[in-house]
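Weekly structure sync, notes
Attendees: PL, DS, HV (note-taker this week)

Item 1: Thioredoxin domain-containing protein
DS walked through the input record. Source organism listed as Pedobacter miscanthi. Sequence as pasted into the shared doc:
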Amino acid sequence: MKKHLYIIALLSCLLSACDPKPAVFNLQTKNFGPNAVVSIQSSENSETLKAENITNGNQSFKINIPKEGYAILKTQDGEHTTEYYFYLDKGNYTGVLDGKDINTYPLKNVPNKESEEFIDFYRLKNSMSKTLFDSLAIAEHELDVATKENIVEKAQIADRWREKKNQSELENIEAFAKKYPKSTATIFLLNRFGRADSETRKYLSIFKSLDEEVQESKKGKKLLAEIMQANQMMAGSKMPNIEGETPDGKEFDLSVLKKVNLVICWVAYSGKSRKNNQVLVDLYEKYKNKDVEFIGVSFDKNKDSWEKIIKADKLTWPQYSDLLGAKSPNAKNLSNFNATYFFLADKNGTVLSNNDLSLDFVDSEISKHLAGRE
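Item 1 (cont.): predicted structure, written out as tokens:
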């Protein structure tokens, strides 16, 4: 008899551990277009866990076996996409999803403290950024209706407000981290913001404000590694050594550097890299006799393909590769595994500029540093 009771108790424990209770979303949806969609995505792998057409009414849907963790509630209405973060677990989520009020967080009642933290994060965000949101909306509307005569001016104004929005986003995360130092949501938010390369010092400051337990978590350690990697490529830092050889077997040496040097991280099989090469060839002709050098660093593995593209694209500046592909120390140390990627260095190998340096700004950045302007 005791044996049967033990089996029943064990089964009861197993069943309770595998509680099939779903995550249920009860939303009032309004002011969306006829083909608008709401979806729930896992932040871990961007897997879509649920997708529903928005009905503009009282709308209910559920995820039968929710995978606990940070998630994204996403709306797609024509060309407009909006994302809201929350913590997915079993239980009831209620709120209002308004297509005309996308800056207001839609979830009002949630089943876990992690999602309650997000409600507070968005409350902080709105209180700190409302005027900015309004100004950006006006600037983007004016860009939408711009004429040929003023479109460049309107685009520049909109870009300035977008950059102010980005700075405000980081300030929002900083305020949240100060209020919730024990929350791992800050790690999630910094990862989603994705500007460790360009806001390295601010990232490190926010990270160091968190409790030690959060810093020592698996995701905390991973983010810190990314921050420190970006930190060594900040302007004023000494660039890491370039590993590998030229096609004719010469190792990299600082003596090849000139006053201003454009380091180009690329791969021969990339269509984007090939298109960039067309622009870079002309740019090199402009600067090659003006104390400027280009340095190509390839993340390729196949030497024949690498050499073939160098010849076909007429890349006459020094080229280096250790032919280790993504396992190359160059990929980790120089560009954090990004290709294509650009940065500038001086004749001593000191980084001059690398923060989100795109091909559009390479010319002006070279010119600026060549003239000695900071």
